[in-house]
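Possible regression after last week's pipeline update?

I re-ran a chain I had predicted before the update to compare outputs. Posting the input and the new output here so someone can diff against the archived version. Not blocking, just want to make sure nothing changed silently.
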Amino acid sequence: MNFIKRWCLTILCLLAAMGCYLLGIPAGGLAFLLLGAIFETAFWVRLYQQHS
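New output (post-update):
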């Protein structure tokens, strides 16, 4: 996967996490909060992942 696609996917994970948090907090939706945590974890893993 090239550099641009990798960064676009990483940013998409962050935006998806923020969107899930915004939907989950006011509505009290545990599923959205958990999904947000999964996307945020994917963001941080992709951000610090070593590529050869």
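Follow-up from reviewer: compared with the archived run. The mean pLDDT is 81. Marking as no regression found.
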